[in-house]
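Obj.: predict assembly geometry.
Materials: sequence records (below).
Method: joint structure prediction, all chains together.
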Amino acid sequence: MNFAAINYSAIIVDGLSFALPLLIIAIGGIYSERSGIVNLALEGLLGFGAFTGALFVASTVSLFAVTSDVPMYLSFVLAALGGAIFAMLHAALCIKFMANQVISGVVINILSVALTGFLTSTINANIFGQASERFMLQTSPRWDIPYLMEIPILGAAFTRVYPFIFIILIVAAFAWYLLYKTRFGLHVRAAGDNPQALDAAGINVARVRFTAVAISGALAGIGGMSFAYSISTNFSPAIYMGFGFLAIAALIFGNWRIVPTFAACLIFGLTRSAAFQLLPVFDAGAAVIDLAMTAPFVVTLLLLAIFGKKNKMPRALGEIYDKSKR
Amino acid sequence: MSHNEQHKEILLELRNVTKHFPGITACDAISLEIEQGEIYAILGENGAGKSTLASMIFGLYQPDEGQIFMRGKKVHIDSPNKAVALDIGMVHQHFKLISNYTVAQNIILGDEPKKRALGVFPYVDIKSAEDRIEQLSKDYGLEVDPRATISKIGVSTQQRVEILKMLYRDAELLIFDEPTAMLTPQEIESLLTVIDNLRSQGKTVIFITHKLDEVMQVCDRCAILAGGKLVDVSHIKDTSPAKMAAKMVGRDIEFSAKRPSKQIEETVLSVQNLRVEDSTGFPRVDDVSFEVRAGEIFAVAGVSGSGQVELADTIAGLVRPKRGKVMLKEQDLAKLNVRKHTESGIAYIPEDRQSVGLILDFALDQNLALRSYYQTPYCKTSLLNQKAFSDHADKLIADFDIRCARGAKTPVRGMSGGNQQKAIVGREIEQDADLLIFVQPTRGLDIGAIMSIRKRILDERDKGKAILLISLELDEVMDLADTIGVMYAGKMLEVAPATDLSMTKVGEYMMGVTAND
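Observations (raw structure tokens):
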């Protein structure tokens, strides 16, 4: 074994490129679940968001200069919008029609895979005139951050950085502020603990939950768009790889709180990139790659088994709030 | 308590307020005038319409007929928000608090003070809220720490938070819906002091209760409701508990049910050197020994948390003892599971009737068969016989006067507390067990139900059953017991025949005062 051959900086860069999209999706889940709505639909939401963003890029790419990064930035806005709109379906089912939240989430996931796959092929064939199951994206630029990149070892975190990392950090910081420091955030967290009390305080529980679920979709959409740029540089149904569920594991492991969830995402991201980088060192064959990709999930299982008991989920999570019931 | 003789401004007036629910008139043309600065009791049995009346004042229901005037102006209170805007506040029977929020966060919820960071970013200004709450809590003698988390504070502190919620919103008219139902005697005392304080600070209080002594202690006037009608309004100084009680139930009430035991026979339950620990290893029951004999009511007195409930749970088999023996006649119960305890002859009326005694979403007939559903006639070759359930329920409904809207199929959740308790008592008595354990059997019930349950306890004793009664109500202990044991901090301080102990003496033992002190 040749440990000198291990590309430590790649572990860090790739780890962060995976961990941060996962974080923003998980924060989306936190918004929904802290408001009391179970959100197993994150997988579907991130996919639908990425679909919307990629569709925008594919249909407007001719309007911009080839080297322009503007479509990329705008695609994140559209992805957030698409995710939010799709999430309203979940919100309507769970809040307005009082459907079972687990079933609604599963249905949204299945619907998202089928719908985006169908729409991508149809739009490609009928509008862009080419048979394809994917929307191509431009390669994302990658930035080296001057000075910071020269720090030993940790400097790797500032080398060849995707711009979406910064988008996510800004959005995540804002999401933290919104959840913990503002009136709206206070109402969201109250809705997930005791909706009756929030109602008695004169706040419209349904509206708070609806907004929280829409935010959940928007954040998941941003995460999905990031994966589309970092993993495949295109949108295709191959984006549904279970990362939405990994985000759920991260937020449970993070106890439905943003900062610990960030730590969980870092663990998952670094585990995954480390598994990739270590494969050549152990001279493992291609067949093992599939196994190595399960590393974050295996870590999830172990961590949940060890720390699961300490978890305190929101008290009213999954509880259908019916005003007329006493 | 002081009375102010001169006539004051009328703060709230109800004129012919009526509310119908399907099949029942909850409030029937009720007219009341509540003066600024008084404590106004609304007294009545469960189901008399007290809570409905309060809910209309607080905007949870709208009256079908009649008008409400606030400070002489006609108002239409169509939501709690509207009530709050009119300076009306309410402490609900079940608190509405966010368990993982601090006291301050709960108080400001829905009315949060806002500031802007850097002139742009709005945020909830928790600091100024905490300061204001500290000030309010000093002004009104409501001791709380604004930074404490709700789930870590006790019931009485949570109630203070609810009171502060109203004061924070500058409420002038404060409605308390059965505020003492969840409290221990000491906590009730301090709540009554707080309410008295509120009056001295110029607030007006509506105090809904069915406990006469509380009304006598703090209230200025008292309206009595029965069956949805206003029966009487009187000044407290001009009336007596007996008069009020008679009006409340529509007949004269005997306050004491006392009957001495006819015959005390052989030992049924024998507890020897029992020690029960909680999960941290702290002894909740510490080296307790006593005997309960057939035809005897052994009442355990003590302040809340002295280990009585753990003692009862252990005898019933819900909790395993660390050391010591529980013998039922000749049988050692320590190694048996709960079902074996039941089958060996123990009936148990638990403290928490809603979570331990009943399955609220099951129908009455199923709840009445919880102890025996697995035996014939309810269950044959693993199949349940629905008819056996409902026949059995019909019999108990008649025997124990359980009032239920839809007979055997009534969901228990919708029944009143008194009728829920009657159902449990009926089910347990029917087992014909040698030992009956009653824990707080009359907690939260109205006078009619209390009397009926106390009478049942005495009847069972007279049939030769051994009764273990655990109660926080000293009146109840004195009234029913043949033998009294007083627990303090997990220890049985004193066991003596009821005739040898005065109420004062028992009270002293409850506070941990022993003969040697």
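Conclusions so far: Chain A touches chain B at residues 177, 181-183, 186-187, 189-190, 193-194, 196-198, 200-203, 312, 315 (CB under 8 Å).
To do: check interface contacts against the pulldown list.
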